[in-house]
Design goal:
Blueprint lengths: L1 H17 L7 E2 L1 H10 L3 E7 L4 H10 L3 H10 E7 L6 E3 L2 E3 L17 H5 L7 E5 L5 E6 L5
Parallel strand pairs: 1-3, 2-3
Antiparallel strand pairs: 2-6, 4-5, 6-7
């Protein structure tokens, strides 16, 4: 009986350590570009909205996966960008905003940020990939599994 209790305690301990996972180091686009200037790396930008169900699934199922997080952190600067937010973003000498943003719609459908057009985003979620110089490689639309 003592052995069984000891085994259960060990099993619970091991499974709880397995639950500890690596997280993606999210940052703003400006932070990613500044880091690119010091240590070139590609950029992966998650373009999401607050109301988007598949965006939430992407966060929960894919971006929380420790293998995905480790790979992304090693090979990319990871940017999280709200496609309908009101942040002002400076990128490649241009300033992008959301002039039609309505605060009362912050958790519902709102107007699209100007940066989404620049990166050819027309659906959510979209993962935008950029090279080491911040040039667009491709936007990849839709939910992606780990």
């Amino acid at each position: 009986m003592k052995f069984l209790k000891y085994s259960i305690v060990l099993l619970v301990g091991f499974t709880s350590f397995k639950g500890v996972s690596q997280e993606i180091n999210w940052m703003s686009l400006e932070e990613a570009v500044a880091l690119q200037n010091k240590a070139p790396k590609k950029i992966m930008m998650d373009v999401y909205t607050n109301w988007c169900g598949p965006c939430k699934m992407l966060d929960k199922n894919t971006f929380q996966n420790s293998d995905v997080a480790n790979y992304v952190n090693k090979h990319y600067y990871a940017v999280k960008f709200n496609a309908e937010g009101n942040d002002v973003v400076t990128f490649k000498g241009n300033t992008f905003s959301n002039p039609n943003y309505k605060p009362e719609l912050s958790n519902r459908r709102n107007s699209a940020h100007q940066l989404t057009s620049y990166f050819q985003v027309n659906a959510y979620p979209t993962i935008v990939f950029m090279d080491e110089k911040g040039e667009l490689i491709a936007p990849v639309r839709g939910y992606q599994t780990p």
